[in-house]
Amino acid sequence: MKRNQLKGLTPFPLLFFSLSLYFLSACGAPQKLKEIAYVPEKDIPKTVAVMPARLLPGTKDETGFQIKPGSEDEAFVDKLVRGVINNQLTGKGYNTIPLARVDQKLDASPEGKNWQKTPPETLCRLLGTNGLIFPEIINATMLKTVAYDEYSVEVRITLFNNSGEKLGSWTESASKKKIAIPTSAISALATIAVAAMDEPAKKHMRLVIYDWGWKISQFIPDSPHGNELPEILSVDTNVDKGVFGEGSQIEVELNAEKGLRCFFDLGQFKQSIPMHYTSGGIYKGVYRVREGEQAKALPLTLHLVKPNGIERTWAETGMITIDAVAPPPPKNLNISSGKQGISLSWSAPGSEDLSEFLVERSEKAVGDFQPLETTRDFKYLDTGVTQGKRYYYRVRSVDRLGNRSSATKVRDLTMPYFETVRLPAQFKGPLVPGTYSVEGTCIVPEGETATVRPGTKFNFSSDAKMIAKGALTIQGDTKNRVFLEGEGWKGIDIPEGGRLAITNAAVSGCSPCLNAEGGLLEATGVSLRGSEGTGILTGKNSPFELSGLTVSGFNEGILIKGGQGRIDKSNITENTVGLMFQGGNAEITNNNIFENRDLDINAGRKLVLDDNYLGATDINKLKLEGDILVASLLNAPYPKGTRVVLLDKEEVTPKMMAEHFRSLKSAGIEAFKNRRFGDAHQALQKALSLKEDREVYLYLAYTQMILGDASASEETLEKGIAAFPYEVRLYQVYARQLAARGENEKALKLVDRALQMSPDDPTLKVIRQNLTAPPASERQFSNKKPAPQKARPLEKAVEGAASAKWQGIASFKASKYTEAEKLLSRSLSKPDRETYLYLIYAQMRLNKKQALATTLQKSIEDFPDEVRFYRLYAKHLADKGEIKEALVQVQAGLKSHPDDFQLQMLENFLKESLEEKQEK
């Protein structure tokens, strides 16, 4: 802080400083008697101009410590001396011309440019003033070393009137060494402890010059022309800091007489910043720099106003710059782990004003980020991490003023286990990346989910295995695969009800490595390497999707005994037999099956092959055995090979059937989207007679529901679930249909079965919640009349609402829609999902469009999680031709039910309708 001590302060006792202070240089030598010039009151000028201060040439410097003429230090002292005497004159009632205006007039006139040789009376006319003050710096010292600090100044000021007459001349000095003994009020407060001397040299020089200003002001006569201005004892600011960034505080403290209204200005940037009285004549004010603010060269001016309106200003020397514009954040934040810790790296954001980077860390994904370290490098190693814990990082740029940028995007990483950890016999949840030893049998329990992240490695002992009774997800990535290794281990079993989804993994040393025994197997980007046995085995009722695999080194690369699925984009080579097909249904396309030792493919049942590379284009050279029909193949390995047709279309019955199926399926779905439900039903039924397909089952069931054939829809859904027991959407549709008919128990069993396969499915959870909600109204009321009793008003209302609900439902089922609407509307004094649904259907039957729209809006407000209301409202709006509004409702429903198949179909249909409408 810069402290300007000015008047009326009591010196500290000498003994207090006797052990810790140095003496002022003035104490060691006799003081010169000061000439005190008397100026008659009538001669005192009303307006004065303070001329630029200057260091007198030819001053003898015996120490070599004095400031050098023409140096930056001289400019600083000149400006400060001039500003201090100007403030002192203002306080003594003189009307002073602003210093900047004086300089402008001097620069603009020929006389002014050579003002030092211009007579005072000429300068007075030029400046429009009654008097001039000439400050002359006789000597000045600014010395700051490790062991010794000294600051001193001696200045003479001379007062002239506009006739050129010299009215008076006064000389005064002030100094301080490392610690000074006070000889005046200001020097008492300027006494500083050793620790305070660590502040910049300019700040200490300010203190000395303010001490000099107070001293010399005692000899300058008060102006008889001005008002009695507020008395200032001291001014204390941190203007020396110069530049202020975001969050910095510009602080002002004033010691003056009581009862004043005080405030300060920062140039034109911010004005009238209040200062509050504390105690003992102290007024304090603070301005906190806000983010984004920017201003340069702001003068700091204090205002002191008496109750009678008389005001005094104090202009601080030195300018303030505000720069609270945040720098840009770092770019390309990356993190990685190693044995030493978690490494972060980033690149420069392209700003030249950076000072450092701030690394922040949290153990939570949102909030709670704490500063970790600042660094000037573009990297940082966090060694304070624990294996198995997840950490979140972000980095900020910091400029030289401390302004912080916005944070980078958060990056997270789990510190892996670098020592091998034994996998427990039962495991679930996300596994921390690291190395695991697997001994015996390790199981994902039924109904549980386990997730393996990139960079994880499993070392299997002989005869060890995994069993996915629940859902096991092994998720590597292309740069950081998951490894499952060992010698003679028994692979991963997927029994009925289980599921394995494995991606970007390397599996070796096992047989069978992936064994689907009724469960769902999905493998993508997996390499399997063995020395004997079987790579992949699928059994009865096992759905499978195998894509992008590399299978080599086994007796049988892939053995299909049953199930239904697809194999594509895979390389099956260097096995004794590449692919063995013994049962089930498999679509095998775009694979490279060649260079296996004995056979590339062996089929015990009819197998049709399309578009695979089999090592040759001549069918007689293919290494195939069994009932295999090759309709077409590739002339080079996929994906570079082109298709070669080997048989005429008439002979390729399976291929013709497949193409016909695809055509019928596409036509049926297109007809459904265009609301041609009769055509859709016909095409979808024909498609299903050619091949079982999950999408065809869904579209056909919806078509039958729309056509009002509930029994046919139910039969279709049952067949679909039997063919695709892991397709959750079939369960959702069937459960809703059963619930609508009141078969809640059967619907609940279906939902529970589906939840075992997809425990986090939000739609299934909502359906189950609705099915298990207690039917309070049914428990409280029956067809029998209750015994007469006094009922409270609230009970009567509840009984009336429940009674009206069940009477309304009965009327609806009896096709008495008008009566049903009245009863159901009355029962909605208490919101109820079922009541809303029946009321909506009743109003639809009665074609009451306005009432229906109101009911639909209210149902969504009361039950925003009920997906059926969004569907019904969207269909109602679409029927009215309000396609955009219908699409809004569909998208609102998809926010809470993103997997709802009906809403997805509606969205596609509405978007297509909107595009067609816009084209027309």
Written account of the structure:
The chain is an alpha/beta fold and 920 residues long. It folds into 6 domains: 2-226, ABC-type transport auxiliary lipoprotein component (Rossmann fold, 3-Layer(aba) Sandwich); 227-312, Immunoglobulin-like (Sandwich); 331-414, Immunoglobulins (Immunoglobulin-like); 421-650, no CATH class; 658-772, Serine Threonine Protein Phosphatase 5, Tetratricopeptide repeat, CATH 1.25.40.10; 799-919, Alpha Horseshoe (Serine Threonine Protein Phosphatase 5, Tetratricopeptide repeat), CATH 1.25.40. Helices cover 30% and strands 31% of the residues. The chain has 21 helices and 48 strands. The strands form 7 sheets. It has a 15-stranded parallel beta sheet that branches. A hairpin with a 2-residue loop joins strand 16 and strand 17 (341-347). Helix 1 (72-91) packs parallel to helix 6 (201-217), helix 16 runs antiparallel to helix 17 and helix 19 runs parallel beside helix 21. Residues 1-33, 179-198, 648-652 and 775-799 have low confidence and may be disordered.
Helix content, binned percent: 25-40%
Structural class: alpha/beta
- What is the molecular shape? elongated
| Alpha carbon gyration radius | 46 Å
Average pLDDT:
83
Number of domains: 6
Strand content: 25-35%
**Helical segment tally?**
21
Oligomer: single chain
Q: Which descriptors would you attach to this protein?
A:
920 residues; alpha/beta; Rossmann fold; Immunoglobulin-like; 15-stranded parallel beta sheet; nine-stranded mixed beta sheet; 30% helix
